[in-house]
UniProtKB/TrEMBL annotation:
Coiled coil segments of this chain: none
Name the record gives this protein: Thiamine biosynthesis protein ThiS
InterPro entries in the record: Beta-grasp_dom_sf, Mopterin_synth/thiamin_S_b, Thi_S, ThiS/MoaD-like
Length: 58
């Protein structure tokens, strides 16, 4: 859990949490957010944000 901030976007949240892995998927309240929308997608107080790391096997 993180403390919510006003005007927090998905992009800023990922930076604050130090997510640097290139293959991630983000969902806000169960809705997939495309990478190109990270900077425009606001995270409201009490939103459920999931960051999922994609891992390839072989």
């Amino acid at each position: 859990d993180r403390e919510w901030e006003e005007n927090l976007t998905v992009e800023l949240l990922l930076k604050k949490c130090k997510y640097t892995f290139p293959l991630i998927m983000v969902k806000v309240n169960g809705k997939y957010i495309p990478k190109e929308k990270y900077k425009d997608t606001l995270v409201a107080d009490n939103d459920d944000v999931q960051v999922i790391h994609s891992i390839a096997g072989g």
